[in-house]
Amino acid sequence: MVEGQCWSNGTCDCHCVDCNTTCTECLPGWSGSTKNKCQRANILYQSYVENEMNSRTLDGDVNTSVKVSYFNPYVRVQLKMSTEIDRIHITLRLRRNETYTFYVKEKEFSRNLDEICDTLLHNDMDTKKTVPMTCRKPLKGTYLEIVSTKNTTLQVFEFQHFECTSGTYGKNCSICPPGCDKECDKITGNCFCRKGFYGNFCKERCSKFCNERGCNSDTGDCLECKNGFFGNRCELNCSVGCHGRCDKTSGYCSCRTGFYNKNCSMPCTTTCLDNVCNQTSGDCLSCSKGYYGSHCNYTCLGKCNGSCEKMTGVCDRCFKDIYGQFCNNTCPPNCDGDSCDRKNGNCEQCKKGYSGSKCNETCPSNCKQCSQDGYNCEICEDGYFGSICAEKCPDSCGGNGSCDVRSGNCHLCSTGFYGFNCNRKCSKYCDLQGECDKDTGQCERCVPGRYGQLCLEECSPNCLNSTCFRNQTCVHGCKDGWFGENCDQACSAVTGSCAHCGFIDGIKKIQCLKCENPWFLFESKCFKCPENCSSCVSKDVCIQCKNNFFYGSICEKKCDDACLSNTCDMNGNCLYGCNNGKYGNECDQTCPEGCKLCFNASKCLECEDGYYGEICQKRCQDNCKLCYNNLSCEVCTIGWTNWSKMCDSYEDCPEVISPLVCAFCDHGYYGNRCVEKCDHCINSTCNAYGKCSIACKSNINSEECADSKDFGSGLPNTKSSGKVMGRPNTISHGPDPVDSWTEGQ
């Protein structure tokens, strides 16, 4: 059987030569409608035991054949496995007046009557033809055999047993009707309808008011209706008062709250309690507050607190400040809680300060509350006690200064005191601001480091948080390095370098649980971590390296020098970034040429001098220190100017102030561009116009020296200082510049 090929949504597995485009040709062994992607399977295709006869008649090719010639010739094929055959197509060359018998059998050489599938008598002309042979009943066998009854030639081209894939039917294996439940009959297409469909080929849809069970697959009548509908096709609406479904045939139902009658079409009286009434008669089961009668259509008699008797209208109870049979009298004003006896109006209890059956008399002075007869005070004003509250409480009483109304003993003591009259001091080691038991003086809790009833004993200094119980055992356990109920035993005595120890479940012997750094725990003993480890879990696994200068499982590797501060994490990733020119988690990769600081190989954050571009791959013009393109320069290197956005050279000019003008000259030079030499001056020292600062050389006779002799005359005969003369404060480009010079600093 060929299963799992087509589904109810109309899609099928593809058995076409090309499944990526429109199907035009089926694969070998497949046929049927190309619209359904070739769902007709030849289950005998290549399903044979290898031999020449089998390979020629089960290869799917109707042009290859087996040809035999002798008396009663036959062609027999052996299948790989026993197969059930009910119908087969055989392509052969038919001979006139020849009878052909087809067998399906398990034994190779048997030819029993019950193994005969079908017999064919051909009375027409000789021809090659594919003929169908239908078995009288399905036969199962490993061998298929066709036999001719005469001494003739038998030529068989192909045995084919076609079967539609699941979900298809008919000659061309069309897709089953969409209303079918899973599969349909592969021959007729008949099927069981899936929920929601009925009729021939399940083409009709059930009424939308059928519930999830659907409808009868033959008649279309709903099996059950959705809530709110009834009738054969559930086409009628249930009454609005139905609770859930109504009877599918009559429409009768159980009523929801507020309705009655067989089909729950009548509403209950609105004054029925919770809108509930008898489903048959409509009588209210109970009435809402203030109403009585079978249908609760009368108002109660008097001021009822709630309901009244359903049939008489008499109040069940009065409001608390009302009394009388019909609740029409007001209670006395000093009744406590404004309530009184319903029959006579006497107060059940008086408000504080009053007495008498009607609470119309006042209590004695300083008496907050007295007995109903007024002879005994039950509650005194704060600070007083006695039967009529005439005596004062002790001055040492705490809180609001009150005391017992009979004995005069204080109710509460002030913080830090105890005793009947609160005249004794609590221990100074009591916690909670010195509170202690009012009667015994025992501390409620001790300050940290103390224990005992009066907190006079000291806890062990090794208790965590310095707190212990009254039996000296530590409340929160021991500080690291100590153990025992009183934390008086050192873990270092258990094993060296042990930071924390204790008992393990099931082991009564004390065990080391944690070691000091840089030691690790192994089999309850402490061992030294690897050399560069500051903390480890074993000799092979460090969890932190010393000063973050190392990395690796045992801190055996040194952080890359390119890491800032030479620090990295346990994986070698730099903690604080990379030095200039490097990038990567381990700073082991070099930035592109011209890139001073980069994020990665394709993104520079800062360029080296003389470079620009996204990855600093482009060079600025010569002698340019900072630029954004190759057409202009923002900052030139020393000795060059960018007044024209191009770096111009000024030899011997350390700094320029405008195009073609130096700010000052190096020693031994003068002129706007500092190209003239002071060779005519002693020590080659002159100002920007060539005038000698000291004097002219004796063998020089020039216009500059002529002007500078007087300039130098009268100077002390000392060696030149060698300082460079500064530029004029005001520079003139005319023929007669005015001197105003100062010595360069």
Provide structural commentary:
With 745 residues, the protein is an all-beta fold. Among the domains are: 44-160, Galactose-binding domain-like (Jelly Rolls); 204-267, no CATH class; 270-317, no CATH class; 459-521, no CATH class; 533-590, no CATH class; 604-649, no CATH class; 657-745, no CATH class. It is 3% helix and 29% strand. It is built from 3 helices and 57 strands. Strands 3-8-4-7-5-6 form a 6-stranded antiparallel beta sheet. Strand 14 and strand 15 (236-237) form a beta hairpin. The longest helix is centred in the C-terminal third of the chain and has 10 residues, at 703-712. The protein is flat and about 145 Å long. The chain starts with 29 loop residues before the first strand and ends in a 33-residue tail after the last helix.
Keywords:
flat, 745 residues, 57 strands, three-stranded antiparallel sheet, 3 helices, single chain, six-stranded antiparallel sheet, mainly beta, Jelly Rolls
Widest sheet, order of strands = 3-8-4-7-5-6
General shape? flat
Q: How much is the average pLDDT?
A: 83
- Give me the number of helical elements: 3
Structural class: mainly beta
Strand content: 25-35%
CATH H level, superfamily name of the domain at 44-160 = Galactose-binding domain-like
CATH architectural name of the domain at 44-160: Sandwich
Give a short account of the largest sheet: 6 strands, antiparallel
CATH fold group of the domain at 44-160 = Jelly Rolls
In angstroms, what is the radius of gyration?
59 Å
Q: Specify the CATH class of the domain at 44-160.
A: Mainly Beta
Q: Whole-Å distance between the termini?
A: 109 Å
